[in-house]
Each structure stands twice: as C-alpha cells, then as structure tokens.
Amino acid sequence: MFEIQLSSVDSFKRMIKALSVIVEEGSFNIDEEELKLLAMDPSHVAMVDFELPRDFFDEYLCDEETKLTVNIRELLKFLDRVERGEQVRMKLEEGRLSIECVRGGHKRRFLIPLLEPLEEETPTPKIFFKASARILTPSLKRAIKDASLVGEHVKLEINEEEFKISAEGDVGSVSSVWTLEAEDLLELKVEEPSSATFTLSYLQDIINAASASSEVATLELSTDMPIKLNFEIPKGRLIYYLAPCIGV
C-alpha cells in the first residue's frame, strides 16, 4: 500500500516538472522512509537523481517497498489540473495511480495507468571531480540565458581565482565571470583547474526547471567529464548529471 497527502501540491508539482525536462518515463522506488528516482533521458546525455523524504508530505504511508513507473510528463499534466485550495491525495489503486483533489464537499479524481517497470537499472555515476563552485541559482540562470543569445554550446571553467561561463557564435560572444569577491559565488573549491563544454539547451532546461525550487546550486567539474549539478532544496535531493560535448 502506498498513499501520500498534500495540503498544497505546488512544491511537489515543481519537483515533478524538474524531472520532466529529463525523464519521459521513470520508475519511482518507494519505501517507508522516502520516494526516489534515478533515471536518464532517452538519449543518455543527462541523468537525474531525485529523492523526497516522508516528512516532505503531510501524510505518507508505505507498508512495503514499491516501484511505481509512470509517464512523468503525463503525470505533470494531471497535477497541472489541481487548483489552489485543493488538498491532494495520491495512492495506488488496482494497477493505477489515483489522484484525488478535495475542497470542501467537492472531490475530483484522476486515474493514471502504471507502466511496466523499466528493465535497466540506472547506475549512479562514479566520477572524481576536481573543482566545484557553489553559486546562487538566479545568477547561474541569468548567465545561461545570456549564453543562449549567441550559441548552442556553453563552456564552464573553474580555477583558483574564478568561475566562468562563456559561449561563442556567429553573432558574437558572451561571458559571465565570478571572482572570489563576487557575492553570488558562495564557495569555490579547486584541486585542479577544470573546464568542459555542454549542450546549452540541456543546461538551460535543467536550470530553469530546478531554479523554481532551489536558491543555491553546486556545480562539480572535471575537464571534459560530465558535470554534476546539485540543487539545494528544503527537503530531499535534486541532482543532475550532464555529459560534455567533446571536440566542439
């Protein structure tokens, strides 16, 4: 048996939206303490590592380990139908996910079919990162939006003195640099100067979606290796990995 209840669905909906930019179909692993998802996008370029503890919810009941596989984007469409002031109860019911929206004496109910569990288990990446930057998410979002003016790829660089985001294209070039004195740059750790180039559209989708729930992000980098983006949320975990573009 699995059942959760929320007095407001807004925070949960923002989390599901953050997953939907990467995952089309995903399997949530649920136990007595938490709800987790580790999944890759269809092209295997990006990965998300997501977790919500039981105390995120107003009520949480799970009496045995459960795997719940759904179309994430379809789930988001149903959650978008929840109106302000409605309490939401979600539970498993005869092979489907039931979403009940209650306000006063009025109740609405949606049923979503479950999918077959994904056969492949997604492994957690094992990468040794050489540098990291902890930064305010709005500042990061602004820099990526600037980069989108000129190119399809964006370069991230971290050294002992600064964190830099830059892009180049036929119409010009853009750069954002945070030195150690920058208020938006909260922490810089460098074992070895590192840089890598990424597909801008992926990075922009991830940051735009995650910024709705997170004010601070930590980016971990090694030269020409996948980047780890850890978005700090009040409860739980929201981490992305994105593969680099080599030879761009």
What portion of residues belong to β-strands? over 45%
Number of domains: 2
CATH topology name of the largest domain: DNA Polymerase III, Chain A, domain 2
- CATH architecture classification of the largest domain: Roll
End-to-end distance, in Å?
Answer: 50 Å
| CATH homologous superfamily title of the largest domain | DNA Polymerase III, subunit A, domain 2
What does this structure look like?
This protein has 248 residues and is an alpha+beta fold. It has two domains: 112 residues, DNA Polymerase III, Chain A, domain 2, CATH 3.10.150.10; 112 residues, DNA Polymerase III, Chain A, domain 2 (Roll), CATH 3.10.150. Helices cover 17% and strands 47% of the residues. It has four helices and 18 strands. The strands form three sheets. Strands 6-2-3-4-18-17-16-10-14 form a nine-stranded antiparallel beta sheet. A five-stranded antiparallel beta sheet has the order 5-1-7-8-9, covered by helices on one side. A four-stranded antiparallel beta sheet has the order 13-12-11-15. A hairpin with a 2-residue loop joins strand 7 and strand 8. Helix 1 packs antiparallel against helix 2, helix 1 packs antiparallel against helix 4 and helix 3 runs antiparallel to helix 4. The chain is elongated and about 60 Å long. The model has no long low-confidence stretch (mean pLDDT 94).
Gist of the model:
The protein has four helices and 18 strands. It has helices spanning 10-20, 72-79, 137-147, 200-210; strands spanning 2-6, 25-30, 34-40, 46-53, 59-62, 66-71, 87-93, 96-103, 106-113, 131-136, 153-158, 162-169, 172-179, 185-190, 194-199, 216-221, 227-232, 237-242.
